[in-house]
Amino acid sequence: MTTNRMVHDVAIVAMGCTPFRDHWNSSADDLLVDAVGECVGSVPGLSLEDVDAFWVGTQGTGLSGQVLARPLRLAGKPVTRVENYCATGSEAFRNAVFGVASGAYDVVMATGVEKLKDSSQSGLSATLPPADGTDVDWTAPAGFSLLAPAYQAAHGVGDRDMRAAMTRVAVKNHANGALNERAQFRRPVTAEAVERSPRIAGPLGVLDCSGVSDGAAAAVIVRAEDAHRYTDRPVYLRGMSFVAGSGAGLASGGYDFTTFPEVVTAARQAYAQAGVTDPAAQISLAEVHDCFTPTEVVLMEDLGFSERGKAWRDILDGRYDLGGALPVNTDGGLKSFGHPIGATGLRMMFECFTQLRGEAGERQVPDARLAVSQNLGGQPGSSVAFVAVLGREL
Amino acid sequence: MPEQNGIGAYAAYLPAYALTGTSLDGAEPPPGGPARGVAAFDEDTVTMAVEALREIAAGTPAGRQLLLATTGAPYDGKTSAGIVHEALGLDPGVAAADLRGHRSGAVALDLVLRGGATAALADVRTTRPGAPDELAQGDAAAAFTAGDAAAVLLARAGRTAEVLDRWRLPGERHDRVWDERFTAEILVASGREAARRALAEAGLDAVDHVVVASSNARAAAALRRALGGSGADAAVERLTGHTGAAHPGLLLAATLDTARPGQTILLLSAAEGADAFVLRAGDGVGSARGGRPVREQLAARQDLAYGRYLRWRGLLDVQGPARPAAPAPAAPPMHRRAGWKYRLEGGRCDACGAVTTPPGRVCASCGVAGGTGGGEKVTLRDRVATVVSVTRDHLTTMPEAEVAIVVADFDDDGLGGGRLSAYAADVEPAAVTVGMRMRPTFRRLWTTDAIHNYFWKLRPWGATTDDD
């Protein structure tokens, strides 16, 4: 199976991202207006009138393209709503990219939004179609916590080492988020706080889980050759792949819960398009889907950053810390920045965009040239996965 | 068809939990006191009927009846036996019907013995917390198919006595009870008369086993004395409580567990009158049992704390997590996928032999389309699976602080394996580990919008079988 680099290369020339947090006083409409406003406002002379087509990603905050068209009062524009679990924001980006890469449009916008805090429930909520009632009513942490015992059994990792690696992921991402004014949680957490937090599912406590928050993000995408008409620091899309898993991991034997095969495939394809042959050495920084701490452990291997069975060790060695060889989730990740589902994929790109433009301030990764944005949804055994490689140069 | 009226096969199902103390003040129960069997929070009369019948009822021929006798059916109006029928995969030509009330167990047995029916007698009994007979009531199921291997009917007699003994209005949870000294007199008189007639018809002066089941403990004791019983039935009852409509079946099953071929049994059930059966144990009684013997199941039970029992029964309203109720199932998908939902049937691929769960049109293993309806259906419900990974849900919508959820792979056995994500049952969540062996058990997952959602859970293998 192959996926090809697109006929037209594309670039991101503007982005916007609201703070992710409990936006008690803002609606989803408000958040979209804020993110789009920041995005368009960052390019002098650019207006919404110049955008030919729009995509909006949301899982449960609204239906149809009117989720975006109505709050912005867009007149006479095509707006498409997309949904792909927690990879929804990336899916909005991907489809917007195709709009430009195909030659159909010159300027497109990808947006994502989610309003989770207007419900009184903890965790995520989703409305599912009528069913036969035979599916386990997993919480998201329960589904992802399956990774831990399976990973330990497969690689001979003891409880103490696994706990330490998971804790390090949480502590690292909160430390990064503390440097980020847009992050939901601005205070670093201690290892002790992580490990003493109330249990949610299996070995996961509250502080092993991503933040439930409200937020929105937006990006303007144009053909690469047009990019410098909008900014002198465009960020180029070097490779991009998306895989919707068949769900076979839950429907038949063989899948062992130590990997996301969907991520492995998407990464391979995105790397091939981007000319990345040794991700561990070539990638400057990565935004990855740390929905729960063991997810980030496994993703370090799926993305080719760590050898199989060694990610826990590399994490403990500080390889993925802000000052490490390959900083991961420099903006705080889902863990600390928060996870308004439809916005998260674009939030990851916002950090890559910021870092590749050298605008990340205290969090800046020196000489960041290539960044990975990896986003997934579903659960181990039945997930959807997006991987993009973004570069300072084409 | 059986050669004679009688019982071909039988099975008892005792839930895995026993309650011995009912002190709200935390006082320890006196040692050697009575116990009651307690159905787990995910069990009801339908699930217990399935567990009792699953190993003996497969061959029920079309034209027969499947009966569910109970005082506590999970639905009013809707026939609960239909759910049992579906879970057992019986021929659609087998009629399914509920029998209700305290006398329904004995009547169902009569319909097995004389009419060739298949029956489950199942009950979940509650009282108000602190009621004098709280420990004297209990939960169990027993099941019988027609035939003559286990026992042959020699004679029967019945008496009807309309009396206000135990009753409750629709929608009420607990029986009300009239002064049992008054009803005992009536039940003893009915019981003695029914037993006398049945023994006379059988031409017997004495029997090898006397079994008395009565919803009135005073009447049961008097009848046992009067009929010269050994007390073996009372000993079982002291460990289970009176299990309502299931009780004559449970005590009969416990007796058949020990009866030798040719021995005679007087089974007397005294409720709203009396039903007496004189049976002779069949030549095949030693191998007519499905599942484990009653006493073995009783010995394997776990003690249950009173607070947990109250929570399970909804007698204590406990704050749950800030999480929506589990969704209610919908009728059309339940109907379309009845094979999967009720019998745990996966689809076996014609091309590669792998099992896909739930069954689908395209094999999850090799991706080959199996044509409309997929390939061969294989039931996973009686097979053994090994835990691949496990988690513990601490935000459960069930009346438990946590539940274990596992992904488990069924043994290949040349049948293609199969994978199931399921809740663990009858086990402390912390005790479930990768590699543990488990076996499906039919349970009620939850009830939302007045729809009971039945499906299979996984129970540690050792708790469900003695053949390893």
From TrEMBL, chain A:
Report the source organism.
Actinomadura viridis
By what name is this protein known? Answer: Acetyl-CoA C-acetyltransferase
Lineage at the top is:
Bacteria, Bacillati, Actinomycetota, Actinomycetes, Streptosporangiales
Q: NCBIfam families, alphabetically?
A: PRK06157.1
Among the GO molecular function terms of this UniProt record, one is: acetyl-CoA C-acetyltransferase activity
Which UniProt key words apply to this protein? Acyltransferase, Transferase
CDD domains with a match to the protein in the record? SCP-x_thiolase
SUPFAM superfamilies in the cross-refs: Thiolase-like
Q: Does the entry feature the keyword Nucleotide-binding, yes or no?
A: no
Might you give the EC number(s) for this enzyme? 2.3.1.9
Tell me which residues make up the Thiolase C-terminal domain. Answer: 256-386
Q: Which residues form the Thiolase N-terminal domain?
A: 10-224
- Superkingdom per UniProt: Bacteria
TrEMBL record, chain B:
Ranges of residues in domain ChsH2 rubredoxin-like zinc ribbon? 342-368
Q: Which domain of life is it from?
A: Bacteria
Q: Which GO MF terms does the UniProt record name?
A: acyltransferase activity
Instruction: Name one matching Pfam family.
Output: zf-ChsH2
Q: Which InterPro entries match?
A: ChsH2_Znr, NA-bd_OB-fold, Thiolase-like
Identification of the protein by name: 3-hydroxy-3-methylglutaryl CoA synthase/uncharacterized OB-fold protein
Which species? Actinomadura viridis
